[in-house]
Design brief:
The chain has 328 residues and is of the alpha/beta class. It has seven helices and 21 strands. It is elongated and about 70 Å long.
Length: 328
Amino acid sequence: MAPANIVILGGGSGGVVAASHLGHSIGQEHNVTLIDQRPTHVFQSSYLWMTMGKREPSDISRDLTALGKRHVRFLNDRITFIDTNRRKVVTEHGETPYDRLVVSLGFQTHPEEIPGDAQAVHHPWEMDAALRLRDALSRFQGGRIVVGIAATPYRCPPGPYELTWLLEDELRRRGIRERTTIDLFTPEPGPVGGSGHPSEFIREHLALRGIALHTDFAISNVDGGGKSIRAQDGRDLAFDLGIIIPPHRPSEVLYESGMVSERAGIAISDFDRLKTEWEGVYAIGDNANMPASKAGVVAHEEADVVANNIAVDMKGRGEPTRLKLQTI
């Protein structure tokens, strides 16, 4: 039997785990390829730590060519189209056919979609933006910090709340907590959806740290000159340092390839095995429209399931598995 072509799109948490497992299990018999326009994997969960000065970019970045040790070919190229009819991935410099395709292209941030003066606020949801916020935080000497969420869904739902706790710790360390107020707003009725134990835990710990929570706060406008954020219902939050997690949506190539039509991501036809409507195509991580948190741990678990099941299919032995998640 001729070697099969297993292609993974995206070098984030899900893509790296899927490629590593598939390369290790079947990479010597079949062609396992990972494609990403970036040459490195970045551990995005550490952006918040980097913002606080506890990590550097080099600490959270790894060269994707290292996957070669796992019998994975890394193709550093930009994906321009995914042809699900002809079963091939088109990149700027060529085409890669696939028998099995794992789409793990994550979510892209769009700060330009924040209403009003988006340049007046920061966010730590990308590498460069996190470094700019770190610089701004180092200059901050007291006042009002406002942290907010522009829209859902977004990467790592508990992240904004973790950010406020890390900020509060950092301000205490610097001795300026007593002259600083911290506010957090969300367009949802409460933290991470508004109900259940995680929401209650977050509410409790925000209150313990003296962080004011503003729910159902949908942004109408960011006034950079007046340094305030207005909600659609007329509420205003003035700020000295504004931080807004920007709107997210799947990669543009997924829209152009007809694989997504909404922000939540690629529709999944089989939740247990992460299958899509297209034969041989799986979606994992943030770009999968799943009833689960868009977080790295979820992408990791989904990658384990998909990699195992593809390997079982290719080898003709072993036991397929299904997704079992408990997340917020």
